[in-house]
Amino acid sequence: MDFEKLGMFYLGQRVDPDTQKATGVPLLYDAADLVTHAVILGMTGSGKTGLGIGLIEEAAMDGIPVIAVDPKGDLPNLLLTFPALQTADFAQWANPDEARVLGLDAGAFAEREATRWRTGLSESGQGPERIARLRSMAEFSVYTPGSRAARPLSILRTFQAPPGEDPELLSERASAAATSVLTLAGVDAEPLRGREHILISTLLTTAWQQHQSLDLGALIAQVQSPPVQRVGVLELEAFYPASERFKLASDLNRLLAAPDFAVWLEGDPLDINALLYTPQGKPRVTVLSIAHLDDRERMFFMSLFLNELVGWMRTQRGTSTLRAMVYIDEMMGFLPPVAMPPSKPPLLTLLKQARAFGLGMTLATQNPVDLDYKALTNTGTWFLGRLQTERDKARLLDGLEGANVASGQGFDRTTTDRLLSSLEKRTFLLHNVHDSEAVLFKTRWTMSYLRGPLGRDELARLAASAITSTPPLDRTAASRDVVPTPVPETPPHRPDRRESGPLPQASASVPLLDPGIPQFFAPATGPGTFFAPMLLGAARVTYADAKSGLDETRDIVVTTPIADGAVAVDWDQAEPAAFTIGDLQRDAPQGAAFAPLPAAAGAPRKYAQWGKEFSQWVARAQTIELLRSPRAKMVSAPDESERDFRLRLQITLREERDGEIARVRERYASRLSTLEDRVRRADAAVKREEGQATESKLQTGVSVAATIFGAMLGRKAVSATTLGRVTTAARGAGRIGRAAQDVARAETELAALQAKRDELNQTLEHELAAIAAAWDTQQAPLDRVLIKPKRGGVSVQLVALVWVPGA
Description:
This protein has 807 residues and is α/β, with parallel strands linked by helices. Among the domains are: 103 residues, no CATH class; 118 residues, no CATH class; 136 residues, Helix Hairpins, CATH 1.10.287. It is built from 19 helices and 24 strands. The strands form five sheets. The protein has an eleven-stranded mixed beta sheet with strand order 2-1-15-14-13-3-12-11-4-10-5. Strands 16, 17, 18, 19, 20 and 24 form a six-stranded mixed beta sheet that branches. The longest helix is centred in the C-terminal third of the chain and has 71 residues. The radius of gyration is 40 Å and the shape is flat. The two termini are 69 Å apart.
């Protein structure tokens, strides 16, 4: 069989729908179709795991990295590939329980398994050379998060400050990390609404915005003593009192103190890019085995992993080709149809967006009713195996029909139902929105030995005898479109070379200074750090403005160069220091190098002069710029961006606008209600008059018809009866005229009431439109207000010589 085609996955052989026999024609699946995601559905024993492993093998053969999440314990079998297909290879991993059931000793059972695999591979057109090529195309490894059974996986990266991410993604990552850690700690907090969740998200976001990383211990400390004074618009103590925060800190501390938690902090980092590629750029097949975890721990890890995956995805360049594959072997509980566990939001995001970045999701489950089929309308490929109940089949057909409607494809429910009812083991119905019709096929024999779930000891043995020795993951590799490359060794530290002129001659010792000159050293960046002299200014500044409601004190620490020239120090050149006063040291670091000291810096009397100039500069230059809305009489908070202030302004004004609109509507409500009631009664009167007019017409018509009919019978004389009928008909004609007048009168009254109601409604709408226009501040101009330090509000804390690394 010719099945080795570039970009095509060999999954098995086509099956004749009528005979249910394999035709010998290979089933080739276009790898690009996996970009639109896939789902595998089938009961236990249907061959679902074999198909999933086959997909992973084909991806690896095509150079596509795979991360496979394994809640059941079967996927470590991917590491059991034996190119020689010798009995001894199988004997090392043969399942002794299965051997006992068959009544075979270990040797006979191993021979049986080796024979089965040789035969199965041969029948599917595969040989030892294909297994060898699989092993050479990718590196295979197994991780056991929360356990040392195989390779542990550290979650510490979850609390590290994400590099270069936009505020929205930063907030999402903080929310995901908060949800995950609270889930593991057993704290029931609703995401984005529970105060526990809001507090931890706020702490993480605040730290990350300052490019600071947190570990769990630091997070617990911040829960007790948060570095924020407000959460939203509420004071911290009002939002979450200290006594109640202590309980949350205690819950998190019990998690940290638990002996089993330490392993979550060990091992390689949970870095998607590193799990997909080796440091040398070779694709990896990474199995994340979570079968040993309980339900709470599984949800904790899955939510962490999926959110890391979302973050990684958004750093990639868009592509229509398959960049990577993620396979989840059992979806039960992670994407339910009704509930919203922490794993569901990132899964929904991935199903909707991952295709644009070349990330193909493949989800497998044996219980179709446990999946949100609305979410799976984003899935283009459905592998459908044997199902356990008619209810499962009906549910599956509903979901498949929805997916076809969403993609604009036709769907023959009757034929699909018939085919699903006749499926045998290892036979699947492939429904691909990229193809014109569904196909039956029988899965090929896997190159990996499907030994079954591996125990803890076996996982440890498997990790120790991994197919390829895996070096530690590259923690600095860029998670970008290009595969990571080895990071070169950091060169020896050299002092920064300024744009002007050559590097000054360095000295191994600090220049001697007059004891009256205050001298400090900023933290060194490493051995042999080069230091240059700068002038340090530190001050505490108080701002107060009654109109703006501003009352704030800030600590300012700046440095400015000291030059040899007519103007030795210019505070207008000052820049914020990269350190705090508390970071400064009085003693020079060992092994450091020092630049020459300008002559002015050695004169003690200069520092008093520079201190006065510094105080004057702070009072003049250290202003706070605020934004003011004249219309709303609102002022921005210090350091609040114009965008954030406008958003806050819009929310406040919208609330006021809606309140005024509600008052106007209430004022009109009673009058409109009265008119509506009168219109309804007038409309009923019109219908009543029309009914009476119709009845009069009918009666008169009958009377006239009877008179004419009597005359046609040939009566020669006009009888009293005939005269009576004529008279009755004449009166009926009069009633018709009066009824018509009544209808016209009722219609006129109805039209008048409707016009009055419409006029009142129009007046109301004009008034509401005027209110809306008056409150529209989307593009309203804002005044810029500069707040200077209050008179006497500048307190100089320190003016000193400071040695700064690499200045």
